[in-house]
Amino acid sequence: MQALRWYGAHDLRLEEVPAPQVPRPGNAIVEVAYVGLCGTDLHEYLHGPNMIRIGAHPLTGHVAPPVTMGHEFSGIVVAMDGSASGIEVGARVAVDPCYRCGVCRWCQHGKYHICALGGSVGLAGDGAFAPFVEVPLVQLHRVPDSVELMHAALAEPLAVGLHAARRGAVGPGDNVLVLGAGPIGISALVGALTSGAAAVYVSEPSPARAEHALAFGATAVFDPTAVDVRREVFGLTGRIGPDIVVDATGRPELIDLAVRTTRRGGRVVVTGVSDSTLSVDLRHLVLFERTIYGSLGYNFDIPRALELMATGRVDPQRLITDVRPLRDGRAVLDELAADRGTQLKVLLTPKE
Ligand SMILES: [Zn+2]
Ligand SMILES: [Zn+2]
């Protein structure tokens, strides 16, 4: 089969590899329907290795590089070794890409996403930029009948935003500010609204992305290059400030602003991963008892994302701005690297 494999920064190769045929114990083989491209993939392509592991992974045994990328995907189970609730050969599935050991302190406390031995499909083991991928059964979620496989591939990025809202303990009546309206910012907006937020404001310079944020229910969107977002939101929240600020920009220089913008006693949730160091004026943190939370991926949020689609509370179609053949993956990443915020989620499919 033809797989798109990461060899190094700017070195992604479409090449022939053997298709997985017989799953190892406890695993399934999934025929990939759709796989999303995200900021993580782009970062690995341009500047990696960042989260791609060099050397053997203790759970997958995979020695990278090269590694077949792709971690946001849906597909159909074509073989399985073992049983899993609600999953059989032929089942339509969305995949939680988090490998987990199941027995470490964090796995035992339900925090498998920060497992001591964890890693992600498509980074620590071969992923879904291929027609077939092998995945542990525990990582499969059945897709509700009313949800298309194209949309099910968005359960993963949507779960990131649901998790960010949960990390920030967004609750009924809260005012929330989301920085950035890319796929994760939009997902955090959805997470805040479905958690009962009274208002969700968004800071986003791209007009196209601002439109998307409004379509997903943002109360107002501000262009940070044109207005003082902190002042605007302060005025709209009774001169208190937002209860929670979610940073979905991946730009560490904005964290200090996020801290100063949140209300006294408020919370800042950071979703982006960056390799640079954060600079925060600690007076703004300590003297007002604000808290900064890191938010990594999701745990148990993917079934929630699928339910939001199945019940019609989220229209995932609005997130998809392009669908391209897998063989174009490298060209698409080059286009995304040059994109100025017109694209949201681009899906690849090995079927074309
Ligand atoms: Zn991703
Ligand atoms: Zn573990």
Please provide a written account of the structure:
With about 350 residues, this protein is of the alpha/beta class. It contains 11 helices and 20 strands. The strands form 5 sheets. Strands 3, 7, 8, 11, 12, 19 and 20 form a 7-stranded mixed sheet that branches. Strands 15-14-13-16-17-18 form a 6-stranded parallel sheet, sandwiched between helices. α4 packs across α5 (about 185-195). It starts with a strand and ends with a strand. One zinc ion (ZN) binds near residues 104, 107 and 117. One zinc ion binds near residues 102, 107, 116 and 117.
The outline comes out as: globular
- Average per-residue pLDDT, rounded, comes to 95
Give start-end ranges of low-pLDDT stretches: none
Q: Radius of gyration from the CA trace?
A: 20 Å
Secondary structure tally: strands: 20
